[in-house]
Amino acid sequence: MIALSWGFKHGTRVEEFKRSDTGPRTEYLQPEHLAIIAAIHLAETGRPDALCSAEDGFDIAEQYAEGGILLLETAMDEPGDFAKMLAGEVKSEVDGLA
pLDDT tens-digit profile of 33-50? Predict the structure, then answer.
């Protein structure tokens, strides 16, 4: 969920990547995770009826998660403290909600 959120926040969606043969591991998702995936699905399509296709929503979620993984991997290779950078970005987002 962190990679999905990071990829979506930064608009990084990877459409071509090696997918799991078993599909997304949805058994670990909580209702709030499904709500985030649905919100991203709606934001991407702009069509409420698109929410009827959970498979499409998971596909979009996987693409953003892959993008987020690539971004986080790159950030970890940058000089400096990755944890402080990540915490600073999260704090900035939270402060922006107030």
Answer: 999 999 999 999 999 999
